[in-house]
Amino acid sequence: MNLDTSRYYKIIAKHSGKCLDVLGKSHTDFTPIVQHDFRNGENQQWKLIPAGDGYYSIAARHSNKLLNIIGGDKGEAIIQFEQRDWDSQKWQLIPDQDKYFFIANKKSGLYLTVPASHAGNCVVVIQYEKTDGDNQRWEILEPSVNLSPSIESSRSGKRVKCDECEREIEVTDKEANRVHELKGDFSFDPLPYNSEHFENIDIGWFNFPKVLCEACGNFYFK
Q1: 202-217 pLDDT, tens per residue?
Q2: DSSP H/E element including 206
Q3: What is the pLDDT of residues 74-130, one digit of tens each?
């Protein structure tokens, strides 16, 4: 596949057909990356930026922030974070069968993974050792403007509940898209990693102390 690094792409999990998504369209650092039905949102469109030695940084269109690992352990969540020259923000696209890729992080050597092959919306994407599963295979495609129906602007201001994740949604005129209101308890169980890290998220920000190593970009939890 010849990637045009000036264009944006959607990145789709083979097992579920869902795409990488910045949760709640947040612009905030530390916001988890999830899989979700494609709705042509800019938080679901990604630019692949050459980062040297065959690696890419992967930037969200709406925030211009990069896919970033929190630490080096398997099972840890993928987040977005401001652009730094860190190995934790560099990814290798490894061609596999047909049109799919494995996507491996330079710092950890672990692979972009949908845990336990969950097929639902709002499942947090993690890094994990290679298992050769379809939940680690990704297709990279240019978005199509008519892949999913938009919400009519006449519904602006109405609040509905997501069929998949039960979160409240506000319909706005802006882009006639759905905006998630993320408040209160926000658990991702059952998932094969320490879910307590993802409780009590408010507007995409993790409500527990974080220490950032400026030198390497690693995040520590206390």
Answers
A1: 333 333 333 444 444 4
A2: none
A3: 999 999 999 999 999 999 999 997 899 999 999 999 999 999 999 999 999 999 999
Sequence-ordered list of residues with C-beta below 8 angstroms from that of 152, at least 6 positions apart, any chain: 176
Distance CA 32, CA 138 (A): 18
Tell me the three state secondary structure of residue 33: strand
Residue 210 lies in a domain: no
Using the structure block, give the residue that is written with the tokens 């938080």: 43
- Return the DSSP state at 14: T
Q: Which residues contact 207 (CB under 8 A, 6 or more apart)?
A: 200, 201
In a domain, 64, yes or no: yes
pTM listed for this prediction? 0.68
DSSP string for 3-48: --TTSEEEEEETTT--EEEEGGG--STTPBEEEE-----GGG-EEE
Helix (H), strand (E) at residue 76: none
Q: What are phi and psi of 196, to 5 degrees?
A: -65, -20
203 touches 26 (CB < 8 A): yes
How many C-beta atoms lie closer than 10 Å to residue 187's C-beta? 12
Tokens matching residue 89: 């923000």
CATH number at residue 97: 2.80.10.50
Q: Which residue has the higher pLDDT, 75 or 153?
A: 75
Does the N-terminal peptide bond of residue 192 adopt cis geometry, omega within 30 degrees of 0? Answer: no
Q: Which residues pair with 180 in a beta bridge?
A: 169
